[in-house]
Amino acid sequence: MSKNHESFAAIVPRITGSISVVSSSLLIYLIYRSKPKLSTIYNRIMFCMSVADILASTAIALTTLPMPRDDDPYWEGVDLSIEDNSWSGQTKLGTRQTCAAQGFFYSSGIVIMFCYNGNLCIYYACAIAFRMKEAQIRKKIEPVIHGGPLFLGLYTAIPYFMGGIYNPSPQDSWCTPYPQYTTPEARDLIGRATF
């Protein structure tokens, strides 16, 4: 991969992730400035979706920064000049813990955000197609609308976090569940993981 491609792979997520964080923050600000604030189901869904997007987009915007530094013992025996990675030569300021935190927030935030996006469709189906009143949706549907994304987001991210499986990925410019440079114990854990 050429130096231009390496820089592109690290810089573009910083820009797009930052724009997404600012946009979601603006949406939260507008919700709090509105008259109903969080009293409507729609505003609560949009608020939660924005919070999840901020978590995931921040992790994306950090790109290679949370990866273990080049002099970290994590890299012992690893050829850092691998041609098929998008992060060689990029600034890495973190540790294994910051990499794991980035992977956790990226994975859980993305899953939660997409689940809330789907639940927004469910809300509209209930309100428009099924003509349910807000009170009915609040009582029967809203617990699932909020519980489902949190459960799925945490259920998919916590096992990788607890198993130490979030690592620098040669395909991404951020830390993801990828076993290439992990210990044999972590590779065994990946093999045994069942979801």
Uncertain stretches of 5 or more adjacent residues: 190-195
Over the alpha carbons, how many angstroms does the gyration radius reach? Answer: 20 Å
- How does the overall form come out from the CA principal axes? elongated
Helix/strand class: mainly alpha
Most strands sheet:
2 strands, antiparallel
Classify the beta-strand content into a percent band.
under 5%
Can you give the helix content as a percent range? 55-70%
How far apart lie the N and C ends? 35 Å
Topology order in helix (H) and strand (E) letters: HHHHEEH
> How confident overall, as mean pLDDT?
84
Helix and strand topology:
Layout: H1 3-33, H2 41-61, H3 96-129, H4 134-162, E1 166-168, E2 175-177, H5 184-192
Antiparallel strand pairs: 1-2
Q: How does this structure look, described?
A:
The chain is 64% helix and 3% strand. The protein is elongated, with a radius of gyration of 20 Å. It has helices at 3-33, 41-61, 96-129, 134-162, 184-192, and strands at residues 166-168, 175-177. The protein contains five helices and two strands; from the N terminus they run ααααββα. With 195 residues, the chain is mainly alpha-helical. The longest helix has 34 residues, at 96-129.
Features:
mainly alpha; 2 strands; single chain; 195 residues
Short description:
With 195 residues, the protein is mainly α. Helices cover 64% and strands 3% of the residues.
